[in-house]
Specification:
heterodimer; A: alpha+beta; Arc Repressor Mutant, subunit A; Alpha-Beta Plaits; 2 domains; 4-stranded antiparallel sheet; 6 helices; about 25% strand; elongated; B: alpha+beta; 7 helices; about 40% helix
């Protein structure tokens, strides 16, 4: 069963084992609640069921299916790294020739200290960078050392790049795609 | 912030594999060798102290809706003011100051691409600052559930 909750929201597929028709509206409510987190009570899925008008098995089936289809990429404790002491957070951006960016991106992503790695478009003339790596570290010098390792390992000595350390987090929270605001 | 070894172990084991079952915290407590009540109390306290932003799912951006990384170059003296305006716009879930001419970096989300575009246009107009819009082309690695290096933190 594929359902589009409403034209303004992306399609949600859910096929709880209990089958029958599970209200698309209720599934949308479930996603809204899940974006805020799993309740920390003995029966969190029952609580979500009470909040959305679904049954506990329907809630668990929907979550499992969203995991299987990759809508939920992980389920667990979401850490605020900054509170723990990961205060040196560098976004390293590179201007890599187009024909190499794919391969280099894959290679850099394998470095244990690279926590995110992705390609984005250049916006010339002001923004020539097409590859982004994040390094979440405990202190600035250590992050710079890790960056030096990355440069040496991949022969990037001549590659234009910039290191953008974050200096303040004005907001950091999970995506709320179907919630309001 | 220093955590005791039980909290550390809880984070080590359950950043990505929280079981989907009727009593997930009981299941965690079995693996940790403590009571369910203690797991719940510890999770609540870690949330209160901002070590955890939540327990729960992390949705895949590209499937959950539309999102975009954007940046503006705010005059230094107005950094806090511009950041506050960005935070007031709907759908902003990350917003950081960074060391660069483009000094404010934020992620805006929306249910779909059209709404996202509208929100960005409105914000750009409001801020009267040119906005760098950088959609994802390809993700090679995008998951912040990495193993915490407790030794480096201690």
């Amino acid at each position: 069963m594929t359902v589009s909750p409403s034209p303004e929201y992306p399609a949600v597929t859910a096929e709880p084992a209990a089958a029958g028709s599970v209200s698309a509206w209720r599934l949308l409510q479930l996603r809204r609640q899940l974006e805020l987190g799993l309740p920390v009570t003995p029966r969190p899925y029952q609580m979500l069921a009470d909040m959305t008008g679904l049954s506990e098995p329907e809630v668990m089936a929907a979550v499992r299916q969203w995991q299987d289809m990759g809508l939920i990429k992980r389920l667990g404790l979401v850490v605020r790294h900054r509170t723990l002491g990961y205060t040196a957070n560098a976004m390293v951006v590179w201007d890599i020739p187009d024909e190499q960016v794919q391969e280099l991106g894959q290679a850099m992503a394998r470095a244990p200290f690279v926590t995110l790695c992705y390609q984005r478009p250049r916006r010339l003339p002001g923004w020539p960078y097409n590859l982004f790596c994040m390094i979440h570290g405990v202190d600035r010098q250590r992050v710079l050392d890790q960056l030096a390792t990355l440069i040496a390992e991949h022969g990037l000595e001549q590659t234009p790049h910039a290191v953008l350390f974050s200096t303040k987090a004005y907001r950091q929270r999970g995506g709320r795609y179907v919630s309001h605001g | 912030m220093r955590l005791d070894t039980t909290d550390q172990q809880m984070i080590n084991l359950f950043q990505r594999e929280l079981p989907v079952c009727e009593k997930p915290y009981e299941e965690m407590s079995r693996q940790l060798g403590i009571t369910e009540e203690e797991v719940i109390a510890r999770l609540q306290s870690l949330q209160d102290s901002q070590v955890l932003s939540r327990v729960g799912p992390v949705f895949e951006h590209s499937r959950a809706g539309a999102s975009l990384l954007a940046a503006v170059a705010a005059p230094d003296a107005q950094l806090d003011l511009v950041a506050a305006r960005i935070n007031r716009a709907p759908g902003v879930n990350h917003n950081y100051a960074r060391e660069h001419t483009y000094n404010l970096w934020f992620v805006m989300t929306a249910p779909d691409e059209d709404t996202l575009e509208q929100r960005l246009d409105e914000l750009e107009h409001q801020l009267r600052l040119p906005m760098l819009r950088l959609p994802m082309v390809e993700a090679h690695h995008i998951d912040l559930g990495f193993d915490i290096d407790w030794e480096a933190l201690s």
